[in-house]
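Reviewer comment 2.1 asked that we show a complete input and output for one of the modelled complexes. We chose the fe (ii) ion case, as it is the one discussed in the main text.
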Amino acid sequence: MTTNSKTINTGVGLRLPHLVEVVATRPPVGWLEIHPENFMANPHAMELLVELSRHYPISIHTVGISVGSADGIDRTHLKRLRALVDQIQPFLISGHLAWSTYRNEYLNDLLPLPYCPETVRLIASHIREVEDALGQHYLIENPASYVGFQSSTMKEPEFLSELVDQTGCRLLCDVSNVIVSAHNMGYDAYEYMRRLPADAVGQLHLGGFTPEPDFADSGSDMWIDTHAAAIAEASWDLYAFALQRFGPKPTLIEWDSEIPDLGTLAGEAFKADRIFQRTLSMMSREAPCASAP
Ligand SMILES: [Fe+2]
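Response of the prediction step:
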């Protein structure tokens, strides 16, 4: 990869306000992740993305593939996504454990699902369909949770483990989503991480969250996964734990609203990289020597 200074391992989400500057300056981040829906209907942005794909590994993170929708997958969208995959050859493709379509309507939100065997079967069949259409693994991301269902019979880590067992899919662990969900739903974020199937985790996300002001008067202190702030200390701490538990995995900084200048975004990626390097060197010092008697 050609960059203008030392390249780091961590990637950043490529958002349209930064696109021209990233093409012009090629910041020394490790890779770029895109929301394909932002590019597929924008020929100029597509042209610049193809140019960037010659210089950076690209990961595709879909927001329009609704694996949790009872109506099934939008096959037209899937075909357009496959064409993009063939064009830019992403090293990872991922999407959310959520539903976002109803009949022909896109709801512009990531809506929650009850965790039960029936939902596992539905999503497993959709993951197989998506992976067959795209020709590679589709990583499923844990959501930020705000409500639960009385009909749920499984905890989220068990639900994700079951999906992995039934489909062979891999997981994208959004570390900040774990922090947000653990706070909102009242569970232990570290215990959640211990219960995820470590071998299936193929990527990590870090994003900013904010307290929900609408709930302040009610005495609630709900946290919202806004991607509108710097990464919280609790997320950095859990990130170091995630690296110890899952091993070195491609890590991405997400920032989608109140998007800062590119230098600030890259600064978060550098911070992640320092934790990545420090954690790995600590683990290598602690690991027993393989040749020791
Ligand atoms: Fe994420």
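The mean pLDDT is 92. We note this here for comparison with the apo prediction described in Section 3.2.
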